[in-house]
Amino acid sequence: MPYHLFKVSECIPEREKHVVEKGKDEEITDALPLGYLNTIPGTLSERGCVYCGAKHVIGTPMKDVIHMSHGPIGCTYDTWQTKRYISDNDNFQIKYTFATDVKESNVIFGANELLKDNIIAAFKAFPEIKRLTIYQTCGTALIGDDLESIAKEVMDEMPEVDIFVCNAPGFAGPSQSGGHHKINIAWVENKVGTHEPKITSDYTINYVGEYNIQGDQEVMQDYFKRMGIQIISTFTGNGSYDDLRGMHRAKLNVLECARSAEYICNELRKRYGIPRMDIDGFGFKPLSDSLRKIGIFFGIEERAEAIVKEETARWKPELDWYKERLKGKRVCLWPGGSKLWHWAHVIHEEMGVEVVSVYTKFGHQGDMEKGISRCDCEGALAIDDPNELESLEAMETLKPDVIFTGKRPGEYAKKIGVPYINAHAYHNGPYKGFEGWVRFARDIYNAIYSPVHELSFVDITKDEITEENSFVTRRMKSDINLSKEIVDSTSIREYTGNFDCVSHLREKSYPYLEEQIEKHKQMAE
């Protein structure tokens, strides 16, 4: 099982051990790609930083919180509105973003006072919000601003508010995965156990590693309610700050995304004795098995079985319809962390597609091992942290029918005629649940069979342009209409000289306008 060095990376030979190609009758887990290491200089990684992993992935989905970045404005802007973490309080956390907007003078003289002023101003601007999280960034970490002392000062002056401090500057780890760890541990150390939730059921869970992308959490919440289970908190999609302070009262931690949130589950088990159960909300069989496992834990497996039976009968025929049409289609599975292994096998089994490549930007070797062990296709490439050129070379080599990835690699895939499904924020989600899985299959079908993508492969560069197959732009139409008004003009160059455009473009327009004016003169006569 050889390592694979992309041609575009021959000048960076260290990249070879970050890519593995599966040969005939080989187990790809025999030679795992290196992962979760510092980015090799020159590869132009598309990873997120530790701050991004803490704020954007874990923190921001909390719904009733002012999420304030203490640093330059670019940090908070880069982590705002790029995922659809919806909530039932009118999407407050998506509509607004907050930053102290640190400048050069603050770096020189300190920004503690600036931070305090911004926190108070934010609470005054939104008096209905009483909870705030401060996220450290590289600049303010380097100058040593004391976020904890500022938070304590504000809470002493405003006893009705509560503030959580997340020290996760961007440089604190190889990738955003380091930020997942830091915010998990900080939350369990500083906030869990400081609020007592109201218990309404004998069956209580924390739903962990769920971020409510386009309503995923609401789908799963419906299943749990039908089973009579109370969700104490969701970490963190559509999650409430105070509910998350009461995580210690759940009887079971149900974990969805192990890459981003296994840390807090493990700590809750050590500190409070709450067991952890890993589940999967994607795919008919994995979801059915997950609901059954939870049912067995609480002794209510018949309730789980009733849901599985009802939902499968309703949605399986539709899924089979798509499977028949997707069978054999080639897929590059290039998502974030956990979807690498949540999707790798089940999309093959339940949708009939062939996974020809898996990759992860920030996953650990454990993620890669789980993901590629479920990838059956001979010649599949397993890639850790590919850059843009490597991704393009992989697509040229593997010739996938579609890729599942994020917005950045998805956009340059489209440029070479490969459709993509947004694996991070979804196209038309939610994708969890039985209906959601059919919705995912529908989006794959629409992407592959879209006439737009079919047309993108047609080379028209050598086609002869005739009057029949040419087109008229709005600018050209405007010029024609304007030419009607100047049919009596004696100098077309005098007229076109009034255009506010580049001179060489005006030169190109002279023959066209002269021709149009001549036509109008003849019509007038």
TrEMBL record:
Name the cofactor(s).
Answer: [8Fe-7S] cluster
Query: Which is an annotated GO molecular function term of this record?
Result: nitrogenase activity
EC main class here is: oxidoreductase
- Using the record's annotation, list all stretches that form the Nitrogenase/oxidoreductase component domain: 49-448
What EC identifiers does the entry list? 1.18.6.1
Transmembrane residue ranges: none
| UniProt-listed CDD domains | Nitrogenase_VFe_alpha (cd01977)
Q: Which reaction does it catalyse?
A: N2 + 8 reduced [2Fe-2S]-[ferredoxin] + 16 ATP + 16 H2O = H2 + 8 oxidized [2Fe-2S]-[ferredoxin] + 2 NH4(+) + 16 ADP + 16 phosphate + 6 H(+)
One Pfam family assigned to this protein is Oxidored_nitro
Could you tell me the keywords of this UniProt record? Answer: ATP-binding, Iron, Iron-sulfur, Metal-binding, Nitrogen fixation, Nucleotide-binding, Oxidoreductase
Similarity section: Belongs to the NifD/NifK/NifE/NifN family.
Q: What is this protein called?
A: Nitrogenase protein alpha chain
Name the species this protein comes from.
Sporolactobacillus shoreicorticis
